[in-house]
Specification:
Elements (H helix, E strand, L loop, with lengths): L1 H61 L4 H7 L1 H28 L2 H4 L2 H13 L2 H10 L3 H10 L6 H52 L6 H50 L12
Helix pairs in contact: 2-9, 3-8, 3-9, 5-6, 6-7, 7-8, 8-9
Length: 274
């Protein structure tokens, strides 16, 4: 019995010893694998950096949709279109300033002319009134000169001459205003033409089968920028046009009323027939 117990103890000791030896042999084999894992991490780092660099570069390639990029990337037709749009805006500014300066009471019906003509008519001196019109040129002076030039032909002829001269001066004023209207109507058409060009470029890019995202975004930006440019010119231009036109109509009515007031003393002019 003692021998069996001793044999069991010896057998258990041998088994434990063999387990310890196997564990010691497995530890050195696992160590190189653990060392290899950190070594692989630096090798993967350049690949991740390269992938990140490509991902960061893609948005920059497709993000060139600013105004300068759109103008330069729209081709020769786009450059001509934008030049015409800028020219239309410059012409609108010029005619707005010109008409604003011209259509004023001091230019159309100056107070100095009214005072001189009133004084001359109070004296009954038609030639003095005609000379005053020559020294103060303007729309109202031209109308009065037309009337005073026919004073010897009677009041009806004077009225007809003044009416014809008033229509002529009114047409001259409105012709200057018409150019503002032309600019306000032309700029949205130029913007629409740019929109059509942008859509043509967009569908041309899609027709390639594998469209370039940057080219597609540039074409859409061209369409939107030209539309915005046309409206930017048209909206303030048409606002100024109606404002100046209404002011011109009021001044023309005042000028006609003042003209009839100044020539009312000519009703008593007698026509002498030879």
């Amino acid at each position: 019995m003692k021998r069996l117990v001793m044999s069991a103890v010896v057998l258990a000791g041998l088994m434990m010893g063999s387990s310890v030896v196997m564990a010691q042999n497995a530890a050195p084999a696992a160590a190189p694998a653990a060392v290899a894992a950190p070594a692989a991490a630096p090798a993967a780092a350049p690949a991740l950096e390269a992938a990140g660099g490509e991902a960061a570069a893609k948005p920059k390639k497709a993000g060139g949709t600013g105004f300068i990029a759109v103008v330069l990337g729209s081709g020769w037709l786009g450059v001509i279109l934008w030049s015409a749009l800028f020219g239309c805006g410059a012409a609108a500014i010029y005619f707005i300033v010109d008409c604003s300066v011209m259509i004023r009471p001091q230019k159309i019906m100056p107070q100095a002319l009214i005072d001189k003509v009133k004084g001359a008519m109070a004296e009954g001196d038609v030639m003095k009134a005609l000379h005053a019109c020559e020294t103060e040129p303007g729309p109202m002076a031209n109308i009065l000169s037309a009337g005073f030039s026919h004073v010897e032909e009677g009041f009806e002829v004077i009225q007809e001459s003044i009416g014809a001269a008033a229509d002529l001066e009114t047409e001259r004023i409105m012709q200057r205003l018409t150019w503002i209207s032309v600019c306000s109507n032309l700029s949205p058409m130029l913007g629409l033409l740019g929109t059509v060009q942008g859509m043509i470029m967009c569908f041309g890019t899609l027709a390639t089968g594998a469209p370039d995202v940057a080219a597609l975004a540039l074409a859409i930006a061209q369409a939107l920028w030209t539309t915005a440019g046309g409206l930017t010119v048209a909206i303030p231009t048409i606002t100024f046009y109606y404002s100046i036109r209404n002011n011109a109509n009021r001044l023309i009515l005042r000028m006609q009323a003042m003209t009839m007031e100044l020539i009312k003393d000519l009703r008593n002019v007698e026509v002498v027939n030879d």
